[in-house]
Specification:
By secondary structure, the protein is of the alpha/beta class. It is built from 19 helices and 27 strands. A hairpin with a 6-residue loop joins strand 12 and strand 13. It holds the Pfam family PGM_PMM_I.
Length: 564
């Protein structure tokens, strides 16, 4: 407890026009937060001001981040401003570090009014990298658009912020710290918590840890390799998978969170997790996985680096969902995928007579369905998979789901996938990312493309590549009417759907910090040719996608930055 009440100040400020949160919060280069006066303070105040004073007064808020550069600096400001804005208690991860899934878990466990997550997810870190701030609401999930719009509107007119500059918290010591503030009836409390334990306890109630321990460390155990990419998930993997489930310590690599992620790009895909892929090629490991910076994304690999695409991953989990004890108890209420994700999950939903929802990109749309009791399992093509145990995608949950399936089925990853394709057919899927494109060029291209595909004459057009002919059956800009609250979300991606069910989708991503990222998604279903190379099978559609958009000409790019 402080000896003298700490002073609360009201500081004048001026607004910035560019603090509109994207799909996953506000993301900018670190230097933007460092060099622009009160840039961080303005956005934090806008978050607090978006919450009704009566709800804010004496409330609990959770704070944590992925450990990237600027994390601790931002936490100190958030603590000082939370106290000045009437928040009663902050729950902060040890050393200021907590994975995004764990924050969702803790928000729900402690009935907090929300959480502030400091992450730029899979984007690079360090002084030259990215930093991000995301606000999650009381359900543990990302704030809905009405909330983020309110935050943005406040940020455009902000004139002052409240702060308690003399308040300093020790992030290294577990336990409670209390502070007296002037003109405050009750002390302000900060609780530094074990970042792993609440989340680990949640997983214990979902999976059969005894069966997993036997599978991972028993007499005929498999060999696995998990790459945390120097992100937040390292301590979780070591504690849960190595210490509790008995995996050898060397099963987990890059487990020390680093401010710059070891100079790497913490994005679990074939490009940025190439070291893991290479280490799997010789066949010494049966299962591999990589996680991103804040621990919500995952990539699954089988022996010899056999790659499981994210749409196939969620489809396989859906088809084997009762290998997970949690779903044996709760039943299955529904499946969902984001619109760009391939329709592999749809085929499982149809066969099992379970409702399937197609939503825009963004986990908040899944959260709304979960809160209404309509959804149990969902996934996005951007390496995100999760269940209704929290309201975020969850990398380690997805890995334990896969290990539960392997432990039950006693087959390899590759054999399980091939069995799945034989049963349902195969959706070949790929995504081309064009990163850091000039934003004006990207927007103009998308506008012209929408005009073209919206013309009535575009439907029924035929495109021939080699011996293949594709005829347009439908073309639109995807919009979504939420079945729970009837809210309409428009402009979610340009879709071209062909008569054989193949799809080409164009989107501008909302998760970058610099320039624009143009994404092209290609999805094509095959019932017979199910064991071919993905890029070879999708080459004709890729040619059509580039021809229609003239992307290389319009952006000055000769090829994609990343192919997944």
């Amino acid at each position: 407890m402080t000896l003298h009440p700490l002073q609360v100040l009201t500081v004048p400020t001026a607004p910035y026009p560019d603090q509109r949160p994207g799909t996953s919060g506000l993301r900018k280069k670190v230097y933007v937060f460092q060099s622009r006066r009160n840039y961080l303070h303005n956005f934090i105040q806008s978050i607090f001001s978006s919450i009704d004073l009566r709800d804010r007064q004496g409330s609990t808020v959770v704070v944590g981040g992925d450990g990237r550069f600027f994390n601790t600096t931002a936490i100190e400001v958030i603590v000082q401003m939370a106290a000045a804005n009437g928040v009663g208690r902050l729950i902060i991860g040890h050393h200021g570090i907590m994975s995004t899934p764990a924050i969702s878990c803790v928000i729900r466990k402690y009935k907090a009014i929300g959480g502030i997550i400091l992450t730029a997810s899979h984007n690079p870190g360090g002084p030259e990298g990215d930093f991000g701030i995301k606000f999650n609401t009381a359900n543990g999930g990302p704030a809905k658009e009405a909330v983020t719009n309110k935050i943005f509107q406040i940020s455009r007119t902000i004139e002052e912020f409240a702060i308690c500059p003399g308040l300093h918290v020790d992030l290294t010591t577990l336990g409670k710290q209390t502070f007296d503030l002037e003109n405050k009836f009750k002390p302000f409390t900060v609780e530094i918590v074990d970042s792993v334990e609440s989340y680990a306890n949640l997983l214990r109630n979902i999976f059969d840890f005894a069966a997993l321990k036997e599978f991972l460390s028993g007499e005929n155990h498999i060999k696995i390799r998990l790459d945390s990419m120097h992100g937040v998930l390292g301590p979780y993997v070591k504690r849960i998978v190595c210490e509790e489930l008995g995996c050898p310590v060397n099963s987990a690599i890059n487990c020390v969170p680093m401010e710059d992620f070891g100079g790497q790009h913490p994005d679990p895909n074939l490009t940025y997790a190439a070291d893991l892929v290479d280490s799997m090629r010789d066949g010494q490991y049966d299962f591999g996985a990589a996680f991103d910076g804040d621990g919500d994304r995952n990539m699954i690999l089988g022996k010899h680096g056999f790659f499981v695409s994210p749409p196939d991953s969620v489809a396989v989990i859906a088809d084997n969902i009762f290998c997970i004890p949690y779903f044996q108890h709760t039943g299955v209420r529904g499946f969902a995928r984001s619109m760009p994700t391939s329709s592999a999950l749809d085929r499982v939903a149809k066969a099992t007579k379970i409702e399937l929802y197609e939503t825009p990109t963004g986990w908040k749309f899944f959260g709304n369905l979960m809160d209404a009791g309509r959804l149990s399992l969902c996934g996005e093509e951007s390496f995100g998979t999760g269940g209704d145990h929290i309201r975020e995608k969850d990398g380690l949950w997805a890995v334990l789901a896969w290990l539960s399936i392997l432990a039950t089925r006693r087959k390899s990853v590759e054999d399980i996938l091939k069995d799945h394709w034989l049963k349902y057919g195969r959706n070949y899927f790929t995504r081309y990312d064009y990163e850091n494109v000039d934003i004006d060029a990207a927007c103009e291209m998308m506008e012209d493309l929408e005009i073209m595909i919206s013309d009535k004459s575009f439907v029924k057009q035929r495109f021939a590549v080699e011996d293949k002919i594709y005829q347009v059956e439908k073309a639109d800009n995807f919009e979504y009417t939420d079945p729970v609250d009837s809210t309409i979300t428009r402009n979610q991606g340009l879709r071209i759907i062909f008569s054989d069910g193949s799809r080409i989708i164009y989107r501008l991503s909302g998760t970058g910090s610099d320039g624009a990222t143009v994404r092209i998604y290609i999805d094509s279903y095959e019932k017979e040719q199910i064991f071919e190379d993905t890029q070879v099978m999708l080459a004709p559609l890729a040619t059509i996608a580039l021809k229609i958009s003239q992307l290389h000409h319009r952006t000055g790019r000769s090829g994609p930055s990343v192919i997944t």
